[in-house]
Structure formats: C-alpha cells, structure tokens
Design a protein that fits this description.
single chain; about 260 residues; alpha/beta; Rossmann fold; seven-stranded parallel beta sheet; 9 helices; about 45% helix; globular
Length: about 260
C-alpha cells in the first residue's frame, strides 16, 4: 500500500515535454520537476529554451533543452533519439506543442490549415509512435498526456474563427481515446487535458478581442493561471493515475459544463 504522497511522487521518472519553454508547457515542466522527474523540454526557439532551463534549474529541477520544430516530420526522429540518449528511456511524454490560426472559414488559407494540422495532430501521432516504439512498448510502461482544448469539445460562434484549431483539438481527443485502447496492453496510459482560457502568447489576441466576456462565460469567473494545470498533469503522469486512460479532463473554470 502506498501513501498519497508516494503515489504522486515522480522521483526517478523521466519526461519529455514539447512546447516546454513557456506558457502551459513550462507550467507542466515545473510540476513534473517539482515532483522529482528528470526533464527534457523542447520547442523551436533556443533562446526561449535557455531562459526556461535557467528558470527550472533555479528551482532545483534536472532539465535539458533540445530545440526542434515538430511541425516538420524530419525533426521527430532526432528529438526522440536525443531524448533516449540523455534520459535512457522516456516514462512520460507531454504532447503540448501547438499552433492556431484565425481566419473566416471561407477564406482560411490551405497552407495555414496544413501548418496547424501538422503541428497539432501529425506531430503528436509521430512523436507518440516514435517514443512508444523506442521506450514505452519495450519497457511495458508509459504515460502520455496530450494537450487538447475545450475548443475541441464544441464549435465556436462567428467571433472566434479558428476552424483548423478546433478541428485539430477534436482530433487530439479522439486520438487519445483510440491510442489508449490500443496501448493499454503495454501498460501505457494515454490521457488528454483540455484547457480553457489561459493567458498565453497563443491566446493573447483572442483574449484581447473577447476581453471580459471570456471571464464572464466561466462559472468560476476567472481565467486559468500559472498553477491550474499542475495537479492534472501530475495525476496523469504518476502512479496516482495508473487506472485512468483514454480520458479528457477540461480545466476551464466550468465553461464546458454550461451553456451561456
């Protein structure tokens, strides 16, 4: 029998976090590192990674950064192999890297559609497949956490105009269910977190447009903050969540629970 503290402890575990240099990715890196996991964070921009590494190391977290553009298929294998080289194996994969694009559906550029889909869906498939084959399936252990969005749970009104993003996040949710069904036999859990409105570089323009309405739509009357994903990502990544798979948890202040 384990204590609750032991169930959430990640000492000795390893984690790869994409989009880990800022925003939600950095928040989740903090959470896993605080619980004892050894980390690799990845994103496109080396300068942002350097800042994140310095921040995490000040917290006493064991972390290494690897720059990679996951919208390009040729980046997947080198990142996976580098993670294996430096960590030895990958226990936890956090698929967080993502992009959005705002445009009326009738004028949405196909190039932008492809950019969003390549990063938000294709890269999650390819990286999960790669890490699964290199580490998780052979070791019969793994925790995969995909970052979806409440935008994948429902459509938008005319003011948001994020067709590709919403479509991609809905795909992530069903990818999560389906992969969980296939890989459960290997001792791998696959879950998703669906954040609502959090202040970030990606959401800045949308929040500037929606303003106070984004807060008023939430029953809790607040936006997400820099701690609100920590509990969920640790739950899904630790022994505390060993009997949870194929699930999507909305962390949105209650927005997805009500019709406003």
């Amino acid at each position: 029998m384990h204590t609750t503290q032991q169930l959430f402890d990640l000492t000795g575990r390893t984690a790869l976090i994409t989009g880990g240099s800022r925003g939600l990715g950095l928040q989740m890196a903090e959470a896993l590192g605080e619980q004892g996991a050894k980390l690799i964070i990845s994103s496109r921009k080396q300068n942002e990674l350097d800042e994140a590494v310095a921040h995490l190391k000040k917290m006493g977290i064991d972390v290494l950064a690897i720059a990679a553009d996951l919208g390009k298929q040729e980046s997947i294998k080198p990142l996976s192999e580098a993670a294996m080289k430096h960590l030895g194996h990958v226990d936890i994969l956090i698929n967080n890297a993502g992009a959005t694009w705002g445009s009326p559906a009738e004028d949405h550029p196909v190039e932008a559609w492809d950019k969003v889909m390549d990063l938000n869906v294709r890269s999650i498939f390819l990286l999960s497949q790669s890490i699964g084959k290199l580490s998780m399936i052979p070791r019969k252990y793994g925790r995969i956490v995909n970052i979806a969005s409440i935008a994948g749970l429902a459509g938008n009104g005319a003011n948001m105009q994020t067709l590709a993003y919403n479509t991609s996040k809905a795909a992530v949710i069903n990818f999560t269910r389906t992969l969980a069904g296939e890989w459960g036999r290997y001792g791998i859990t696959v879950n998703a977190i669906a954040p609502g409105f959090f202040p970030s570089k990606m959401s800045r323009g949308l929040l500037e447009t929606m303003g106070e309405d984004a807060i008023q739509r939430a029953p809790l009357r607040r936006l997400g903050d820099d701690e609100d994903l920590k509990g969920a990502v640790v739950l899904f990544s630790s022994a505390a969540g060993k009997h949870i798979t194929g699930q999507t948890l909305a962390i949105d202040g209650g927005v997805s629970a009500v019709i406003i």
